[in-house]
Every structure is written in structure tokens, then in C-alpha cells.
Write a structure and sequence with these properties.
Chain lengths: ~120, ~110
Amino acid sequence: EAGVAQSPRYKIIEKRQSVAFWCNPISGHATLYWYQQILGQGPKLLIQFQNNGVVDDSQLPKDRFSAERLKGVDSTLKIQPAKLEDSAVYLCASSLDSGRAYNEQFFGPGTRLTVL
Amino acid sequence: KNEVEQSPQNLTAQEGEFITINCSYSVGISALHWLQQHPGGGIVSLFMLSSGKKKHGRLIATINIQEKHSSLHITASHPRDSAVYICAVNGNQFYFGTGTSLTVIP
């Protein structure tokens, strides 16, 4: 079974530039998560989708971050414009059903973003 | 205050030692997860449990729901076990600990 795919694996940009990350979850997984993990910290949930609907985006900095999952399958996360403090690993995960239930998440390899 | 606290933050062990990593949480949960993160950044789910004990090879995870505490044990540790181990819980949302960085020296 293919795992969660993410691209790119690495990205270096200058502050105020824009960047987009892509995630393809495991086939059949209804729930998709985007996390931000700053060096030395645990992952922080940015947004959770159930199919193509948003379940939780309370910690997403909506002035600069946006995410979509239009067809309920793959998803993109965008940062516009980027700030230095956005340097982090962006992890995508998926699970079979709602994250509120008894459920296991499967993680992608992450995208390491460096903002100069 | 973090909803999930792990200890220790850093741990160095000699190959073959028995290792314990602890996790305490303050919210009501439906499940607790132990995750392993290698230096490249990828995360692998080791265990998901809501009661009792689970064992996979040299790894054992236990949870005490009443005390809101879980432990991850590694028996006969090996250098390839070196990684960051993260405890996460399903509450009304996912909460993650900051991780325990384990280094096993040959």
C-alpha cells in the first residue's frame, strides 16, 4: 500500500515570497491533516479536512496560510507571504475516518521549508 | 501548560540497555499514540492504544487511563532505535508532546 506522498521534500525561499506544498493521502483515507513542526517542538495542527470540508483550522494563521482539498483527495497548503518564523517541517497525515474517533494517522515524509 | 508532557527530553543509553520514556496528559482522550521520528523528519506510528498494554518486537507501550499516563519501553536497545519519540493523544483535537530525543551508543 502506498503511503502519504508529499512534495517538495525541501524548499528554500526568501521572506515575502510565496510557497505551496502538495500532499496525496493514502487511498481511501477521508481525513487529511497538515501540521507545522518547528525545530525542537512537537507537530502543531494547522488544518484538518474531512473529505473536502474543513473540520478544524483554529490554529491556521489565515492572514498568510491557506489550504484546500477541493476534490477530497489531494491537498495543497500555501503560504503567502512567507516570514522567517515559518521555517519548519510541514507534515501531512491521513487517517481512515474522523480524527476525533479512535483512529491512527499515517504521516508523509514532510517538506522542510527554510525562509531566508 | 502543554496538554501532553513527556520525560525525559533527551536520553542517551548504551546499546542493550532497557529504556523507558514517559508521557502524561491532562485532557480526556479516546486514544494515545506513540510516534517515532527519524532525523530526516518522517514520522512512523508505533502504537495506538486506549487501554492496557501493546507489544511489537522490542517495543512495549502501556497506558493507565485513570492516572493519565503512558510509558514506552524499549528492550535491548540498539543504535538504530536512535530517534525522537513523540507521544500524541486524541482529545477533542490531536495534542502532541515535544518529543524525547533518544541516542543509543554502540
